[in-house]
Amino acid sequence: MEAIRPSSDLRNHYSEISRQCHEERNPVIITVNGRGDTVILGLQDYYQMKSELELLRTLAEAENDVVNGRVASMQDTFDDIRSSLLERKSNEV
Question: How far apart are CA 76 and CA 78, in angstroms?
Fold first, then answer.
């Protein structure tokens, strides 16, 4: 569960907010004039959230490809990858 803190706490209690984000692994909502304004979370949690969002976008694109018939057999896909790798290898020599 996220904590809610006033913006003045960023200046006066930053270390405590940082510790809270890292130890409890929950976001802290910062308010300005009583309204939510910003969310603070630990860096590791940010990177994890960003990775998960990217994965969800990739899965949504893949699902869209299936729905719209943009698919190939697994064998064709592996053959294309194999050909591409062999071509790349021959260009390196």
Answer: 6
- At 79, the pLDDT band (50, 70, 90 cuts) reads very high
Q: Which helix (H) or strand (E) holds 35?
A: strand 35-40
Nearest to 25 by CA among 6, 45, 8, 40: 45
Strand partners, 30: 5, 38
Superfamily designation of domain 3-41? YefM-like domain (3.40.1620.10)
- pTM attached to this predicted model: 0.69
Phi/psi of residue 35, each to 5°? -115, 145
